Amino acid sequence: MTPEFVDTKRAAIVLSIGESTVRKLIADGRLQRFKFGAATRVRLADVLAWAALQAAPARSGTLQT
After folding, report:
1. Distances (CA, A) of 47 to 19, 25, 61
2. Pairing mode of beta strands 5-7, 39-43
3. Which pLDDT does position 62 carry in this prediction?
4. How many CB atoms sit inside 10 A of residue 57's CB?
5. How far apart are CA 58 and CA 35, in angstroms?
6. What's the pLDDT tens digit per position in 21-58?
7. What's the CA gap between 23 and 31, in Å, rounded?
8. Domain ranges of the chain
9. Could you tell me the strand order of the sheet in which 34-36 lies?
10. Considering the entire predicted model, what is its pTM?
11. Residue 2 pairs with which residues in a beta bridge?
Protein backbone atom coordinates (compact mmCIF):
# COMPACT_ATOMS: atom_id res chain seq x y z
CA MET A 1 0.00 0.00 0.00
CA THR A 2 1.40 3.42 -0.99
CA PRO A 3 1.46 5.98 1.81
CA GLU A 4 -0.54 9.18 1.30
CA PHE A 5 1.93 11.22 3.36
CA VAL A 6 5.71 10.96 3.65
CA ASP A 7 8.23 12.60 5.93
CA THR A 8 10.84 15.05 4.67
CA LYS A 9 13.51 12.35 4.56
CA ARG A 10 11.43 10.12 2.27
CA ALA A 11 10.45 13.12 0.12
CA ALA A 12 14.15 13.96 -0.27
CA ILE A 13 14.89 10.41 -1.39
CA VAL A 14 12.04 10.44 -3.92
CA LEU A 15 13.22 13.80 -5.32
CA SER A 16 16.95 12.98 -5.14
CA ILE A 17 17.61 16.18 -3.21
CA GLY A 18 18.69 16.98 0.31
CA GLU A 19 16.30 17.02 3.23
CA SER A 20 17.13 20.70 3.84
CA THR A 21 16.01 21.45 0.27
CA VAL A 22 12.67 19.75 0.97
CA ARG A 23 12.29 21.95 4.05
CA LYS A 24 13.05 25.00 1.88
CA LEU A 25 10.38 23.91 -0.64
CA ILE A 26 7.93 23.72 2.27
CA ALA A 27 9.02 27.13 3.61
CA ASP A 28 8.68 28.66 0.12
CA GLY A 29 5.15 27.22 -0.20
CA ARG A 30 6.04 24.91 -3.09
CA LEU A 31 5.10 21.86 -1.00
CA GLN A 32 2.28 21.95 1.54
CA ARG A 33 3.19 20.87 5.06
CA PHE A 34 0.97 18.80 7.31
CA LYS A 35 1.66 18.38 11.01
CA PHE A 36 0.85 15.13 12.78
CA GLY A 37 1.79 15.91 16.36
CA ALA A 38 5.46 16.93 16.19
CA ALA A 39 5.99 15.20 12.82
CA THR A 40 6.03 17.12 9.55
CA ARG A 41 4.66 15.33 6.50
CA VAL A 42 3.96 16.18 2.85
CA ARG A 43 1.59 14.48 0.44
CA LEU A 44 3.38 11.95 -1.73
CA ALA A 45 1.19 13.05 -4.66
CA ASP A 46 2.47 16.64 -4.22
CA VAL A 47 6.07 15.41 -4.14
CA LEU A 48 5.56 13.42 -7.34
CA ALA A 49 3.81 16.35 -9.03
CA TRP A 50 6.67 18.69 -8.15
CA ALA A 51 9.16 16.16 -9.51
CA ALA A 52 7.20 15.92 -12.77
CA LEU A 53 7.22 19.71 -13.14
CA GLN A 54 10.97 19.79 -12.66
CA ALA A 55 11.49 17.04 -15.23
CA ALA A 56 9.29 18.69 -17.88
CA PRO A 57 11.29 20.38 -20.65
CA ALA A 58 11.31 24.15 -20.58
CA ARG A 59 9.25 25.76 -23.29
CA SER A 60 10.58 28.88 -24.96
CA GLY A 61 7.35 29.70 -26.81
CA THR A 62 8.97 29.44 -30.24
CA LEU A 63 9.56 26.54 -32.54
CA GLN A 64 13.11 25.76 -33.56
CA THR A 65 13.61 24.30 -37.05
Report:
1. 13, 10, 27
2. antiparallel
3. 59
4. 5
5. 34
6. 999 999 999 999 999 999 999 999 999 999 999 888 76
7. 9
8. 5-54
9. 5-7, 39-43, 34-36
10. 0.80
11. none
